[in-house]
Amino acid sequence: MRKFAHPAWSSSNRGLTLIELLVTLVILSILAAAAVPYAELTVRRDKEMELRRTLRQVRTAIDAFHEDWRNGGISKTGDGVSDDGFPKTLMVLVEGAEAGDAKGGVRKYLRRIPRDPFADASKEPEEQWSIRGYQDEADALSWNRIDVYDIRTTSEGTAIDGTPYESW
User: Fold this and answer.
1) What was the pLDDT predicted at 5?
2) Left, alpha or beta for 89 (phi > 0: left; psi -120 to 50: alpha)?
3) Which residues are within 8 A (CB) of 131 and not within 5 positions of it... i.e. 6 or more apart?
4) How far apart, in whole angstroms, are the C-alpha atoms of residue 168 and residue 153?
């Protein structure tokens, strides 16, 4: 018994035509063109959130260090403490400062110096940041090398909201 098949389904017509293939490629390229900027924006937003967390973490450590100095929690004459009560370098927050009580010991404020997500990854974390001392002007571009009062990123880029990263 002979079976009758639809002419479009015959063995000679199986496969895709050039037009169908081109239409498929155009649709895929349109989807890719829409997805790439979204992915780039997502990566940038993640880096911005990491930068905010990092700045908050280091600034909180600097504030805790200064508060301990004012309250006598760390030695006012220790090697890592400036006359104004701030750490002399970022590494002091990691290595610690001499405790000001009779027990002695060392108080540490950070486990490590966090990396700047927008900085050159080949630099050491301490070199990635722009540091400002207590005696420096708010917009100073050079560090007095006396103490660490604040840090900011060295990135000259602009955030998604239009603010420069270095003003954060």
Assistant:
1) 56
2) beta
3) 90, 143, 148, 150, 151
4) 8
